[in-house]
Design goal:
The protein is an alpha/beta fold and 113 residues long. It has one domain: 3-Layer(aba) Sandwich (D-Maltodextrin-Binding Protein, domain 2), CATH 3.40.190. It has four helices and five strands; from the N terminus they run βαβαβββαα. The chain has a five-stranded mixed sheet, sandwiched between helices. β4 and β5 form a beta hairpin. α1 runs antiparallel to α4. The radius of gyration is 13 Å and the shape is globular. It starts with a strand and ends in a 6-residue tail after the last helix. The mean pLDDT is 90. One of its GO terms (biological process) is molybdate ion transport. InterPro entries: ModA/WtpA (IPR050682). It comes from Actinoplanes missouriensis (strain ATCC 14538 / DSM 43046 / CBS 188.64 / JCM 3121 / NBRC 102363 / NCIMB 12654 / NRRL B-3342 / UNCC 431). This is ABC transporter substrate-binding protein. GO terms for molecular function: molybdate ion binding.
């Protein structure tokens, strides 16, 4: 997974919770600035999901379907077109809609109640 540096606290916790619920799935994180992540994803950097706090950066990246948005558009999540495991990537994106992930996003300040 490629994620914006500003989301480190939230997504480290989300990764731990997701993996506890889905032990068959290993989530590896790469954190960087949104622009850097976009260049990495567009350049073929291995990754299944791109999470950014700047939705505009997704316009330069090939994704499966339409990116998901959270927090009134402040958080964008997309399964990358070159995903090696689009099924588990979609499972992770679906998990972000669940109560546990939403609580983590709220508790870390990404989402506001």
């Amino acid at each position: 997974m490629l994620a914006s540096t500003s989301l480190t606290e939230a997504f480290d916790t989300i990764r731990e919770d997701f993996q506890a619920r889905n032990p068959q799935v290993e989530v590896l994180m790469t954190y960087a600035g949104s622009g850097s992540l976009t260049r990495q994803a567009a350049g073929g950097e291995p990754g299944d999901v791109l999470v950014t706090d700047d939705a505009r950066t997704l316009s330069d990246v090939a994704v499966h379907g339409k990116p998901e948005t959270f927090a009134g558009g402040r958080l964008s999540v997309a399964v990358l077109e070159k995903s090696a495991d689009p099924t588990n990537a979609a499972l992770f994106v679906d998990y972000l809609h669940e109560g546990a992930a939403q609580r983590i996003l709220t508790d870390t300040g990404v989402l506001r109640p």
